[in-house]
Design goal:
The complex is a heterodimer.
Chain A: H1 10-13, H2 15-46, H3 51-57, H4 63-78, H5 82-106, H6 117-143, H7 162-171, H8 179-209, H9 216-245, H10 249-259
Chain B: E1 15-24, E2 31-40, H1 49-58, E3 86-89, E4 92-95, H2 101-104, E5 111-115, E6 122-124, E7 127-128, H3 131-139, H4 160-170, H5 177-180, H6 201-212, H7 220-227, H8 241-245, H9 252-273
Parallel strand pairs in B: 1-5
Antiparallel strand pairs in B: 1-2, 3-4, 3-5, 6-7
The chains are: A mainly alpha, B alpha+beta.
The complex binds iron/sulfur cluster (2 copies) and FE2/S2 (inorganic) cluster.
């Protein structure tokens, strides 16, 4: 490196910066967003515990649906600079996944020979990244970008009917869960599990990469924290998927109608 | 790896161990497998892989009775301090001089597989070219700068606590086990790629060793410059295989995190200083 002027690619020149940026974007904003997103989604379950949601839902209404819809409205109507948040988030996801693919090409897994737990997590971190980004594209594509041809029953998600249309997009029909609905629901289970693992494990390795946890004991302690966080998020994610897939769509819809206090716009795309 | 099981004494206290060896006649030549049988008895008590290889070199006849060339390997110290004899034994990288037959093949008919390390170019058979291990130590200037034209006098005092940490780090023998097991340290046959690909756990740990040394510290900035460059500390994927396979039990993952911390601080201060 000293005397020879060797051609160094941009990826090489900014190797350290890019890798630290990759690590950072995984936590802020993506990881932070993931936590809030799962909190919102799982409100379909824990929302029933909050009295205010029971009031919001009205007589015969579903408090979980009220909680979830309330959160969705809060995000869409009240949160300031939503467009900037979205742009930052998408730019981060794009960078994190594209650069993540590049990082994956620089290594070669050897779990067959060295089947240590840490080595398995190294592999799973990459696999969960691949599956995770595919899931994110499906999730956002079908619910936000109108890829309804990929949704069982062709449901179009709407913010006004956030809970009932989400439930339909997982179930495929009001009455029962169709075969396609089962496939998509299981796909959601897999997708969220991969993303939560990716985040929890990434949080653990990031602390080593940045040099926060230096001693083996500190790495272990931080490992417990990350495991606890991962388990918590996993439970939230699973309970949300399960709750939506088993939701009483009619009751959810009437709750949503109640919440809109008579402003009855027809839901598009309901099969 | 077979645990240290007690050798079962077989008939007449002698047993036959088979060695399945990856053979290669030279750089770029294809690999073929040959199997040899070695008798282990009272006379060869305490046999290790190298002593068996010596036997095979003296009698290069395969189990099929075919005469072949003697198997080539590298070794120097024969007491696990030089690292030269490192190879892949039964699928795991380790030193062949300290791989005792009673432990890895305790029973009659047991087979031992020997392969050269996969991250380095093969010179012949089990002998590989480990130049890149040393090249990467040069990248991080893993030495104390004391060369000069006059006597420099005695150096600064070394704190006892730092000596403790440094002693363990200093036992690294550049064997390459940590590199062989690392998923981020891939084989690069073209030396031009050595400066931009991952330095490896041993170099990160040696950079820590010399950054802790009171005189070695003089080069700390240059070492961190290398570690925040291409193939530096950020290229570690935290699989933590290195620490599992290091024969000297060097806390490599602690060294990696320590250098990660130093690199974080170095890059932030550099941003505001320059
Ligand atoms: S750190 Fe351990 S495994 Fe790596 S070269 Fe040194 S002694 Fe060998
Ligand atoms: S922790 Fe880093 S250096 Fe050690 S084996 Fe894993 S990737 Fe390689
Ligand atoms: S010959 Fe030196 S370590 Fe085995």
């Amino acid at each position: 490196m000293d005397t020879q002027a060797r051609k160094v690619s941009v990826l090489d020149r900014y190797d350290f910066l890019l890798r630290r940026l990759h690590s950072l974007t995984g936590i802020v904003p993506i990881g932070v967003f993931l936590i809030f997103h799962l909190l919102t989604n799982s409100s379909i379950g824990w929302g029933t515990l909050d009295k205010r949601n029971v009031e919001r839902a009205g007589l015969g209404g579903h408090a979980g649906v009220a909680a979830f819809n309330h959160d969705v409205h809060f995000i869409n109507d009240t949160l300031p600079f939503l467009i900037f948040i979205e742009i930052t988030l998408w730019a981060s996801i794009a960078f994190h996944s594209v650069y993540g693919f590049y990082i994956a090409t620089t290594g070669r897994s050897n779990v067959k020979r060295y089947g240590y737990q840490g080595n398995w997590r190294y592999v799973l971190q990459r696999v969960s990244g691949y599956i995770g980004i595919l899931f994110i594209l499906y999730h956002v594509g079908t619910l936000r970008w109108g890829w309804t041809f990929l949704v069982p029953g062709g449901t179009r998600w709407s913010a006004e009917y956030a809970a009932s249309t989400m439930a339909l997009a997982l179930r495929g029909s009001v009455e029962n869960v169709t075969v396609a609905g089962v496939v998509v629901s299981l796909g959601y289970m897999l997708g969220v599990s991969m993303l939560v693992f990716h985040f929890a494990n990434g949080l653990w390795t990031a602390a080593i990469s940045w040099g926060l946890t230096v001693s083996a004991a500190a790495q272990k302690r931080w490992g417990y924290v990350c495991t606890a966080l991962g388990v918590g998020l996993m439970l939230m994610a699973w309970s949300a998927v399960a709750a939506f897939a088993t939701l009483d769509v009619d009751r959810a819809e009437s709750t949503e109608r109640n919440m809109q206090k008579g402003s009855l716009t027809e839901r598009a795309g309901r099969p | 790896m077979t645990g240290p099981t007690q050798p079962k004494p077989s008939a007449a206290d002698s047993r036959s161990v088979r060695f399945r060896i990856a053979r290669c006649d030279g750089p770029g030549k294809p690999t073929r497998w040959e199997t040899f049988a070695v008798k282990i008895d009272r006379e060869s008590a305490g046999a290790n892989v190298i002593s068996c290889l010596q036997h095979i070199a003296a009698h290069p006849v395969t189990v099929e009775g075919k005469r072949t060339t003697p198997v080539v390997w590298d070794s120097v110290c024969l007491e696990e301090v030089c690292g030269a004899c490192t190879m892949v034994i039964n699928g795991k990288v380790r030193q062949s001089c300290s791989a005792l037959i009673d432990q890895i093949a305790p029973n009659d008919g047991d087979e031992v597989t020997l392969e050269p390390m996969s991250r380095f170019p093969v010179i012949r058979d089990l002998w590989v070219d480990r130049s890149r291990v040393f090249h990467n130590l040069k990248r991080v200037k893993a030495w104390v700068p004391i060369d000069g034209t006059y006597h420099l006098g005695s150096g600064p005092r070394e704190p006892a606590k730092a000596q403790d940490t440094r002693y363990t780090l200093s036992t690294c023998m550049s064997c390459g086990c940590c590199l062989e097991a690392c998923p981020q340290f891939t084989r690069q046959d073209d030396p031009a790629a050595w400066d931009t690909t991952f330095v490896g756990a041993h170099a990160l740990s040696q950079a820590r060793l010399f950054n802790m040394h009171e005189t070695g510290k003089q080069l700390a900035g240059e070492r961190l410059e290398a570690l925040t460059g291409p193939g530096g500390v950020a290229d570690c994927g935290n699989a933590q295989n290195c620490v599992k396979v290091c024969p000297k039990n060097i806390p490599l993952t602690e060294s990696i995190a320590a250098m990660g911390r130093a690199a974080t601080i170095h890059s932030v201060t550099r941003f505001f200083k320059k």
